[in-house]
Amino acid sequence: MSVHELKPKNTDSEKITINLGPVDLGQIDLLVQEGFYANRTDLIRTAIRNQLAQHADVVKQTVARKSLVLGMQHYTRADLEAIQAAGQRLQIQVLGLASIATDVPAELALATIESITVLGALHASAAVKAALSGRIR
Predict the structure, then answer these.
(1) Which of 12, 44, 57, 130 has the greatest count of CB atoms below 10 A from its CB?
(2) Is residue 81 a contact partner of residue 100, using CB atoms and an 8 Å limit?
(3) One of this protein's GO BP terms (predicted)?
(4) What is the pTM of this model?
(5) How many Å from the N-terminal Cα to the C-terminal Cα in the chain?
């Protein structure tokens, strides 16, 4: 019998759920039916992107002011071992996706990560997330 390691799905998106009133939903369906959008999701993504574009300057200024990494930040076991060897600790601040490799033991994460602030998504093993739960904001 062979054993295969299950790896988390690497996706470039996260699922969100929203509640809309019947009138808003009906208007969305009408625009989809009339061919303005391929489906409800297409309209909602477009609306969100338009709002983000409208507020792009505020986002850029806030990212700079708060010293956030914009985009993706990935930490491997080797990265964290090097930080531990240097006697340093991380204060992770990301707007986007922060990920910690699945082979990072909880003890190494605890020894090297002082705090995590993520506006977006954090991907890490359940053990690492549980160990760092008091340090995640």
Answers:
(1) 44
(2) no
(3) regulation of DNA-templated transcription
(4) 0.67
(5) 43
